[in-house]
Amino acid sequence: MNVRISGFGAVSSLGVGLDATRQGLYAPPRPPALPTRVDTSLPLPVFEVPLAGESGQPGGFTNTMIELALAEALDQAGLNRPSLAGRKVGVCIGTTVACQLNNIPFYDDLRSGRPASADLFRRYVVSAPAEWLRRELKLNGPAINVSNACASGADAIGIGALWLEQGACDLVIAGGADELNKVPLDGFHALGICSKQACRPFAADRDGLNLGEGAGIMILERPSDAARRGHHPRHTLAGFGKAADAYHITQPHPDGVGLEIAIANAFRQAGATPADIAFINAHGTGTDVNDRVEGQTLARLFPPGFAYMSTKSLIGHTLGAAGALEAIFTCIMLEHGVAVRNHRCPACPPDIPVAPLSADLAFDGDLALSTSLAFGGSNTALVIKRMP
Amino acid sequence: MFIGNFVAYSNQALPGFELLTPELLKHTRERAALRRADRYTNLIVLAALHVLGDETPDDGLALITATAFGTHRTTFSTLDDILDFPEAQILPTRFSHSVHNAAAAYVGATLKLHGPAIALAGFEQVLCEALDLAKTFLHGGLCSRVMVIAAEEKALLTEKAHELWPERFPADPPEGVVAFLLSLSAQDNRRGRLLVDRPARTRPSSPFTFGGDARLFQALAQADATSEHHV
Fold first, then answer.
1. Cys bridge to B101: A54, A105, A221, B119, which one at CB 3.0-4.6 A?
2. Is residue B205 pLDDT above 80, yes or no?
3. Given a cut of 90, is residue A58 above it in pLDDT?
């Protein structure tokens, strides 16, 4: 695979835009706090985006975050919105919350036989992110919303790259977005996988995840198309691997079967081996099972002393946005030549053979791996290359 | 792409569709151990088992599911819990089954599929996009065969959709599922060739024809290896 990442933009609890994202990535982590935009009695801290707005479906806040990230990505790619109209541009956006009508007052009216808001329902139908962007930008290419749980954003980027390689379109807007919402907050709490403290991915005392929100958008292009317009991207998507565990609806396969296949497939596309990888931006949710399976699988596949971290200690688990934001963080780390430490994990946990990075690490390599492990045993691996 | 098989089930008597009966759904539940699974998952797994027929699934088999409303019955059950129970006591199983890709996970676990599995959701041309993506997967070498399955379940939201937006959604929408087994190999061809033509699609399709075209489904039900179909 050889697809240029011509630009990217990010919105997360680190801030709006790449300047804030770069600073936040290398700064001491800010702790999560109780949500201000979600009505909840649960004492669960979250990582909120520092933006005013009404969090509540449909459309609204999620699509606002997408627009902000897209504007930055287009700017970095040397493009603008009007220049895309009528072109064969594909849109592939990963999301979880935006695909469901999780509006509690609406549903309460509906189930009680009271008139439910037709306006809200219509906004729900027309605000599915990829289709909404295709309409807003007057694009003439494929548009799909990937709802593959926590791997959605990474899957969207991989699919976008495949579209380009197969000639389905000439430019791709790909990424992921999700806003904080009461339903996943209550749902993850019910599953017993939310921490009441700041999450501690891969740590011995990890006890769950913190939810977050955000949007990560990439502009993808074929190398020849970027070169033709004189644009010189700094990163290439070199590999996309996707595989299923075939095991359980919520638990990963204990031996990381699907993750291993996904990584092998991504490496095959990239022509890479584990020894070529400078660092791994792991999924690392901070839950007991995910981190054990992922840590043990990576330790089995990579050379001793390999470098890995989870950036969820900085922004929480942003669900459909996670794979996209983490791919963007991977690009930033490749750009700086410094891999970020894994916060709140002071020692190697007993159930994981190799400790994550305890300090920021300067490196010389040009390749990095970003992994996503989703509900339903859906595993995704992206290999990203820094361009000379 | 070649169509290895096509199946379609609906609770209404639609041309080209077999009748979706409680017995069929129950039999699927028994065969695939769907004790906790919701109705949307039941529809998807039913279609997966029947479109594969006697064929053996292997690591080269991918899965793409497509829907507009997806698991809204279960999503709304979760909302019932939130409205009726103390916030800390909602049922975890309902929430985990309200995730769109839960159905794909059940198909994967039932058939032991390790190939790529992707869940798509959308209101415009979601089945056509899924068929397009299947072509991309096949030509990209991600798999040797793909199951594309589109389903809509009967739920409060689908039943109220017409009332809330009469110009966009029909009254009395059918429940059902359609499934394609696709390949690039002529050896797999049983129902003809499928040609995906994006520029020909100019307006949103209805979720209640599962994001596709009722005429296509009718033609597919009678097709043989010499047929040619356009989407």
1. B119
2. no
3. no
Tell me what pLDDT residue A98 has.
83
Mean pLDDT for all residues in chain A: 95
More confidently predicted of A55 and A314 = A314
Cis peptide before B86 (omega within 30 of 0): no
A317 a catalytic residue: yes
- What pLDDT was estimated at residue A120? 94
Distance CA A42, CA A213 (A): 18
Helix (H, G, I), strand (E, B) or coil at B47: helix
Residue contact B165–A41, C-beta within 8 A: no
Distance from the A231 Cα atom to the nearest Cα atom in chain B, whole angstroms: 26
Domain extent, residue A266, equals: 3-386
Within 13 Å and on the Cβ side, how many CA atoms surround A256? Answer: 24
Nearest-CA distance A125 → chain B (Å) = 7
So what's the ipTM on this one? 0.96
Q: Could you give the percent of chain A with pLDDT greater than 70? A: 98
Q: Which two tokens stand for residue B228?
A: 């040619």
Residues of A in contact with B115 (CB under 8 A): 243-244
What confidence tens digit (pLDDT) does each residue in A200-231 have? 999 999 999 999 999 999 999 999 999 999 99
| Residue B180: strand pairing partners | B6, B148
Q: Using an 8 Å Cβ cutoff, are B102 and A245 in contact?
A: no
pLDDT average, residue stretch A99-116:
93
> What is the phi/psi pair of residue A225, to 5°?
-70, -40
pLDDT(B81) > 60: yes
Q: Which parts of chain A fold into alpha helices (H)?
A: 18-26, 60-76, 81-84, 104-112, 118-126, 129-136, 152-165, 182-190, 223-228, 257-270, 288-301, 312-315, 322-336
B135:A248 CB<8 A: no
Total domains, chain A: 1
pLDDT at B201 over 60: no
For residue B110, pLDDT beyond 90: yes
Q: Which of A235, A253, A283, A343 is catalytic?
A: A283
Which residues of chain A are within 8 Å of residue B124 when distances are taken between CB atoms? 131, 143
**Inter-chain touch A183–B75, beta carbons under 8 Å:** yes
- Given a cut of 60, whether residue A57 has pLDDT beyond it is no
The two structure tokens encoding residue B2: 């070649």
List CB contacts (< 8 A) between B96 and chain A. Answer: 187, 191, 249-250, 375
Asked whether residue B202 carries a pLDDT value surpassing 90, the answer given is no
Is A232 catalytic? The answer is: no
CA–CA separation, A342 vs A331, rounded Å?
17
Mean pLDDT (whole number) for B65-88: 93
Distance CA A26, CA A76 (A): 21
Instruction: Tell me: pLDDT of B56 over 90.
Output: no
Which of A91, A107, A163, A194 would best serve as a mutation to test chain B binding (most B beta carbons within 10 A)?
Answer: A107
Q: Which of A235, A253, A317, A343 is catalytic?
A: A317
Q: How far is B150 from chain A, CA to nearest CA, in Å? A: 14
CATH value at residue A209: 3.40.47.10
Does residue A55 have a pLDDT over 70?
no
Q: Is A253 a catalytic residue?
A: no
CATH of B2-230, picked from 3.30.200.20, 3.40.250.10, 3.40.47.10, 3.40.50.970, is 3.40.47.10
Of A128, A146, A147, which is closest to B123 when you measure between CB atoms?
A128
